[in-house]
Amino acid sequence: MKAMLVTGGGSGIGRAVAQLFSARGWRVGLADIDARALTETAALLPADRTSTHVMDVRGASEWEEVLAEFARISDGRLDLLFNNAGIAAGGAFADIGLEAIDRVIDVNFRGMAYGARMAFPYLKATPGSCLLNTASASAIYGSSGLAIYSATKFAVRGLTEALDGEWAQHGVRVRSLMPSFIDTNLLSVAVAGTNRTARDTVVAAGMEFTPVEVVAQKAWEAVHGDRLHTPVGRTARRMAFAARWLPGRMRTMMRAAGRRG
User: Fold this and answer.
1) Key word Isomerase present in the record (predicted)?
2) CATH architecture designation of domain 3-260
3) What band does 58 get if pLDDT is binned at 50, 70 and 90?
C-alpha cells in the first residue's frame, strides 16, 4: 500500500489532497499544528489507513519524530511527502511587523526545507517516491501586497528545481504546485495597514477562487506526471503566460496593484 505524509493536513488543500489520495487506496499520515483540525480531517478518512501527527514544521526534531513514527506505521514506506503547510501575510511590506515576517519565513520556507531534508532518507528508500511542495502563483511573479509570502514561495520554487536536479539520481521525483487563489483559511489573514482580509482583496479585484478539489486533482497529476511546476487555476495560468511572454505588462500590473494597496 502506498503511503503519504501531508503537512497542513488539517484543512484546506492538505485536507482535500488527503481525501483524494485516500479514496484511491493510499495510507495517509496527517500532520498539522492544530490537533482539532487533524481530528476533523481524520474523521473523513478510513481509520485503518489514517494516522494523525501533531507537529510544528519549524522544529527539526519534530520532523524527525513524526517521520520515524509514520515509517513505523507504514512499514518504512514514504511514497509521497506533500510538503504543504504554509501561512500568509498580506499588505504593504513596509507595514508588516518583523515578527510576522519571521513567522512567514520560518513556516513557509524553513519548514519546507526541514521537511525535504529529513524526509530524504525515507523517500530514497521507497522506489518511485515523490516530494511535492506547495508553492504558489506568487512564485511565478512577485506579487505586490504579498511581498514576504511571495518571496518564500520563490524560495520553495528554487528548492524544488534544485532538488529535482540533485535527487533524480536517487530515483526521487520532486514537483511543485502553484495554485492561485484558493478560498481557505489562508485568506482570512488581515491585510497589514487596513481592516480588510486577503479574501476581501481578491473579491474586490474580481479574481476567481479555485476549488480545493481542483487543486487535489492537480496534485495527483503532479505526483504521477513529469511536469516540474504545475500552475493551478486560471489566474496562475495567466500569470505563467504573462511572466514568460509579457513581462513588461506583468511589471505594470504589479505597480498598479501596489498603488491600490
Assistant:
1) no
2) 3-Layer(aba) Sandwich (3.40)
3) very high
